[in-house]
Specification:
8 strands, 4 helices, alpha+beta, 207 residues, four-stranded antiparallel beta sheet
Length: 207
Amino acid sequence: MTQHFLHDNPSLLSHVPVTVQVLDVNDNPPEVATNEEVIVCESSRPGQVIQTVTAVDKDDFANGQRFSFALLSQLPANPNFTLKDNEDSTASIIARRRHFNHLTQELYELPIVVWDGGEPSLSGTSTLTLRVCPCQRHGKIRTCQGEAFLTSAGLSTGALIAILLCIILLLGKLGQAAGGRGCLWVNVLGAWMEEMDHRGAEMDGRV
């Protein structure tokens, strides 16, 4: 009956556009936004900021892109690094000690928990890899890239030292056969190595 009434009275019909907004549900945990290793200079001092990190979230910004950070509480206190929440959706990794040495320990792992500002709030844990490297002034990496290349080629530091010793012994034997001229090359090579080590130590001391 109602449809018949409206059909007989077309002036009573109207069309109203309706907009339907689909709201995103906060169902994705955030994670630390980094795809690269964090570099720690051997000359880092206690309280020095190693790197500032942020987070990413697959959910819509309407859920609140406000991130909070902390170290994983289930683990013992980290003696090497701490984390400062900057309260601006970033966090700073800070060294807690000095005298890092890549020969003693090259890699460290740092689990970081990050929370989003959605309802309900979700959290995710990301484990960052920190690599210790010798650095020059202003934090410029000195040898890590070269060591990474040699490692990818299948040559470790010990293998390189062994190869160098073989070269020195070979030059010494050649020197005996050539009347001592090979010993000169050995001395020159040794002096050059000592000079490189001395310069590297001076640069590390000035950082």
